[in-house]
Amino acid sequence: MSSEGIASQTHERYDWLDQSRGLVSLMFIFAIITYPVSGDPILGIDPLGPTFLNHGYKYFKGPVPLITIIDVGQQIFMFVMGFAAYLAFTSRWSKKGGRTAGLYAARRVGLLLLLSFAEACFEFPGRHEIRWNEVLWEGTLAKLAIGSFAAFSCIALIRDANRRFLFALGVTGLHAVLYASPWFDHYGYVNDSPWRPMFPFGAVNLAVVAVIATCFAQWVWTHPEGAAAAFRQRIAPTCFYALGAAYCLGWVQPAHHHDVTAALALFAVGISGLMLTMCFGFGQMGIRFPLLTPLGKNLLLTFVLGAIVVDLYIGLYDREFLAQRPFLTLLLVGILPAAILASVAVYFERKNIILRA
Amino acid sequence: MEVKQVNTPEQEESVPKPHFALSYAPWPTRYSLFVVCLAATVLLLMRWGMGARADLEHRQKGAYDASSLGLAAAMSATQADGLLPPLDPAPGHLRPKPGVGHPAYLVDGRVKSLEAKPDAGLLLSYLDDGRAFTMKELFDSCDFFYLGYAVVNEEEGAALVKAYQAHVTRGLDFEDDLPAGTGTLGTGTLYRLRIDLVERLAEAGVRIDPVRPPRIPVFVERPGHYDTPGGWVIYLDRGVEWLPYPGPFPMTEAFIQALEAISPPPSS
User: Which of A176, A219, A224 is closest, CB to CB, to B42?
Assistant: First the structure.
């Protein structure tokens, strides 16, 4: 990782984009806080905290998964990364050449894979093995790496955003067909078909989300009438179509968090696009939430720090102790870790340090 | 000493600069038509795929239920000195004797409330991720034949059927091992299923291949539940295997028909 100040930037920062990244960061913080206190309804252990800000599979595991907004969080995260990566990649290419852009892309993908490996090593003492499938394609960081790689590659290879969008839709369609077929094992509820090979369904559709994000970005940054026209004419309508398609597909092939079925991917695209539209609109109206920008600027840092520290911190408390003291739990678990992470992000922003590859 | 030449501003201007132009293009109508055609094609292909997958998932669920059944029987045996439940002495039911074993067996002691509900069914918990599920009427399942005794081939299976019919006719129970002309692993006795049966027989001098010990079926699924003919077989080692029907023992035509004759399917 390297620190990057204003002077060495290849493109200006857009506050509304940082605000949207901050929103994603906040969602992530809530998700990692509620995860360790999910409880188990079947065993009679009640969850703590707001259940709508936790993964649905922590409450129900069945053939048709329970999906919350947090189950789409990974995909929204990928979308925002892809959207921002477009600007960073193309500005480097146009100002410094393809080699610089390629190195930048390699650095980002490599860092994510390195973090994925580091996470596996961190879990090694307890598990006694490094799960290479998680390091390379199943783990969250690995999927983000694959998505980033797909985004950068597709920008370079398919420069027409419309065609790139069609390509992404085609891949999602193929994903839906393969997922429906009897050829491959699924991650989900019935995960015991040893005679069926695994397929990286989750990684593929996460990559699709990243590629679609680059299309959105290109529409926004290259529209001849400006970003507002792009959001009005292209982004918003596409999002509503995506949400409609997700709704319809959800009846046929339910959304699934780990395998990222087409319904979930399209839902993520729709929600992400509308979130960007909202943040852009807020920016136009002068509405901003001060805390979101520092969180958004150091999105990857928040992600890594939160993933490592929050779980360890919450594990220090006895569950019964927390369950019997909801107000104290709100302070110790609901607010304190989030406040600390936000403080770290604000500190880094004040020092003008943006940590990324 | 080497002097490095530096370009003058004029020379810099003549050097081609990196160029990467991405532009905005309006959305052609034909692309919308393509998307519609793509969606229709995908939905058609999904329809085909889901049809093909439905039986697979049905079978997978059957495997899931079968492995739970085997696990439940094994856990019940831990409370009975390793013996699996005896056969139901009531005629026409190849199933474990009702009421044997704790019906609400708790693997995870955190679930205290079910102790007071003996008819709550079996609750098992996978301790690695805290998942748990309940199974209703597990030991009353009409989907499986419970053999009760160790048989590993057609001859022993036929002997079991004969011994079962004789016992039921005389109103006897199945608490003990059964004398038989063709017994378990070539002995003269049909031994009741127990967790350590193979080890005990080996100690008693029965010849057992240590490399490939015999697989002793415990539950045999009644064929006909799936589009693909066959069923799941749960073995004493708690392994679960899909066998086609007709196929190898215990899913041979003769043995299944004999089991069907003594334990007919419930009338719908």
Answer: A176
Q: Which helix (H) or strand (E) holds B218?
A: strand B217-221
Interval B40-61: pLDDT, tens:
999 999 999 988 888 887 887 7
Phi, psi values for residue A268, rounded to 5°: -60, -40
CA nearest to A57 within chain B: B131
Using CA atoms, how far apart are residues A16 and A28, in angstroms rounded to an integer?
18
Sketch the domain layout of chain B as residue ranges.
56-102+141-262
SS (H, E, C) B158-189: HHHHHHHHHHHHCCCCCCCCEECCCCHHHCCE
Size of the A and B interface in Cβ pairs below 8 Å: 99
Q: What are the domain boundaries of chain A?
A: 2-356
Distance between B63 CA and the closest CA of chain A, angstroms:
8
Residue A183 exposed, middle or buried by CB count within 10 Å (0-12, 13-18, 19+): middle
Q: Which residue on chain A is closest to B110 by alpha carbon?
A: A43
DSSP-based three-state secondary structure for A37: helix
Contacts of B45 in chain A (CB under 8 A): 177, 180
Residue of A nearest to B55 (CA): A182
- CA–chain centroid gap for B231, Å, is 9
Give B210-236 pLDDT, tens digit per residue: 788 889 999 999 998 888 899 999 999
